[in-house]
Design goal:
28% strand; three-stranded antiparallel sheet; elongated; 7 strands; 138 residues; 2 helices; four-stranded antiparallel sheet; alpha+beta; 20% helix; Aldehyde Oxidoreductase, domain 3; single chain
């Protein structure tokens, strides 16, 4: 699963995700892409599940680019622990995704296979997504 090799700080604030994506809103590598239509937090497991769904449906032909990376640690406290005594330990990693961000791109496969693959990937994610294609790809 994806996670950073090292970070400057061990724990992070939760923060809020609002507004539209500032960059990565257009296709750069592939002919087809999966775009986020709303903001949200994607865990490394969800990203990996989407990647596996695409890769298996494409039967490992073509190429896939993952344009998001889970670099924010999420800490949790154990069950039935009293309030106080500090912040919990980091449990998993998330990627903050804003609306309009291209998350996955694929190329080198027919259009119908690409659309089916990205639909499968979108169903693995907890946010609304849309499939986009490069201009001139019909």
């Amino acid at each position: 699963m994806l996670q950073p090799a090292r970070t400057k700080y061990r724990k992070a604030h939760k923060g809020r995700i609002h507004g539209a994506a500032k960059g990565a809103t257009t296709l750069h590598f592939g002919a087809y892409g999966l775009k986020a239509m709303e903001a949200g937090r994607l865990t490394a497991r969800q990203i990996e599940a989407a990647r596996r769904a695409v890769t298996r449906h494409m039967k490992r032909t073509g190429r896939i680019w993952i344009r998001i990376f889970p670099d924010v640690p999420v800490s949790t406290k154990p069950a039935e622990v009293r309030m106080g005594s500090g912040k919990g330990s980091p449990e998993f990693w998330i990627a903050r995704v804003k609306a309009g961000r291209i998350m996955f791109e694929i190329d080198g496969i027919p259009k119908d296979l690409a659309l089916e693959s990205l639909t499968l990937a979108g169903s693995k994610l907890p946010i609304l997504t849309r499939i986009v294609q490069r201009m001139g790809e019909e």
